[in-house]
Design a protein that fits this description.
By secondary structure, the protein is of the alpha+beta class. The protein has a domain of 142 residues. The chain is built from eight helices and six strands; from the N terminus they run H-H-E-E-H-H-H-E-E-H-E-E-H-H. 23% of the residues are buried. The N terminus is likely disordered.
C-alpha cells in the first residue's frame, strides 16, 4: 500500500485507537454525504432513531439541525473521514459502502468488543467490486482488529478466518496447521477482552 491505514500527522505519536476514534483527515469533509443519517442508530435524551431509517432531520444531503444535533452525531464519523488511505471515491454516498469502527464492550462475543465493519448501503454485491475489495484490504492487511461485512441485518466476520476464530474462542481446540501463531495472537487478545469485561462487571457491581 502507498499509505498505511494508520497514517497520522508526523509530528504526533498516536495509537491505532486514536486514529480510529479521534483522528480526522485534514481537509476532508462530509460534503453532500448524509448516509449515516440513514444507517446509524441514534439514541439521545428525548430522541431515538433506529438503524436503517432516515433521520427526520436529514435533508438527504445534510442535517437540518446540524448546529444543535445530538451528541452521538457530533462524536461520530465514518472511517472515510478518519483514514487517509481510503480514497476520495470511497465516500459512502459515492461508493455504496461505509466503513466504521464499532465498540461494543457489552457483547458476549469478544470479537465484537472492537471491530471494523464494512456496511453495504444497498446490496451485498458491492463487496465483490475490485475497488471495494482493495479498500477492505487496508484493514485486512493491517490485521489487528476483526473485520465484519454487514448487509440487510446480516453480519459476517471475514477476519480472522473461521478456523482461526474458532480455535481462538475455544482453547481446547488445536490450531489449524500452519496457523498456530495467528491463533495464539488472537487468543491473547481475547483473553485481554474477557479480563477487561470481568473487571468492568466487578466495578459496576460494587
Amino acid at each position: 500500500m502507498a499509505r498505511s491505514a494508520m497514517t497520522v500527522p508526523s509530528d504526533q505519536q498516536h495509537s491505532a485507537h486514536y486514529v480510529l476514534t479521534k483522528h480526522l483527515v485534514a481537509g476532508r469533509t462530509c460534503g453532500d454525504c448524509a448516509q449515516c443519517c440513514d444507517f446509524k442508530s441514534v439514541r439521545a435524551p428525548g430522541f431515538f432513531k433506529p438503524a436503517g431509517e432516515r433521520c427526520p432531520h436529514s435533508t438527504g444531503c445534510s442535517c437540518a439541525i446540524y448546529d444543535t444535533r445530538p451528541d452521538p452525531c457530533r462524536g461520530w464519523h465514518c472511517l472515510w473521514r478518519r483514514i487517509d488511505a481510503l480514497p476520495d471515491e470511497a465516500r459512502p454516498d459515492l461508493s455504496g459502502v461505509a466503513f466504521e469502527v464499532l465498540i461494543d464492550h457489552d457483547s458476549e462475543d469478544p470479537f465484537e468488543h472492537v471491530s471494523i465493519v464494512v456496511l453495504a448501503l444497498d446490496h451485498h454485491s458491492v463487496f465483490q467490486r475490485p475497488d471495494v475489495q482493495s479498500w477492505m484490504n487496508i484493514f485486512l492487511q493491517e490485521g489487528s482488529l476483526p473485520v465484519f461485512l454487514s448487509w440487510g441485518g446480516y453480519n459476517l466476520m471475514i477476519h480472522p478466518p473461521p478456523d482461526v476464530a474458532a480455535a481462538a474462542r475455544d482453547e481446547t481446540l488445536s490450531p489449524p496447521p500452519g496457523k498456530e501463531a495467528a491463533v495464539e495472537r488472537w487468543r491473547e487478545r481475547l483473553r485481554g477482552v474477557r479480563a477487561e469485561r470481568a473487571l468492568n462487571k466487578t466495578a459496576s457491581a460494587s
